[in-house]
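Deliverable D5.2: sample structural annotation.
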Amino acid sequence: RTASFPRRSRPVSRSCSTRGSSEVKPRLVRLVALLALTASIVGLVFWWRSDRRRIVAQFEILQDELEKSGDEGTIDRLGHARGVAEIFVEGFVILAQPYEGTIEDRQQLMAVVDRYRASAERITVSDSEVEVQLRPNATADMTAVVEAVGLRPGGPGRERLRIRIAWREDDGVWRIQELEVLEVLDSSGVFF
């Protein structure tokens, strides 16, 4: 046996308050959606123009210029070496102990990059533990762990380094003022 309860029916009222609230909801939803979209676009613009993102992008360009995917001619090798040198400001310093010593000249830097690229059949470069600290005077410090894996005629090798990079904004472009090898974490002879 089932018990049945009488249904109460409410009269449908077409008062202003009910009709008004149902018309406001779509407008409110559109307004909230528009505000969220605007906030997202503004956030994206700020992120895109942020110094931190531009520094990391330059760091990625540096890594791309160091990488090598196969045979290449002298002009390609020198083009990559020049691409690396252009990421550095005039008067830069590279403290590359125990590999090269101090490098302070673009031609010297290009020769070193060309020599490393010429000695390897392939080079891949990756990073981890990237930290960027911005300073108010258009400079920044970065620390990172960089790993270069290469294939040479003698076999594969890997170099894993902790580096410090001092960046300086130069005519709206972030460039490297100083690069220092802080610690060799692993070395199995990619370049030596």
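Annotation notes: The mean pLDDT is 83. The chain is about 40% helix and 35% strand.
The annotation will be released with the project's public dataset once the embargo ends.
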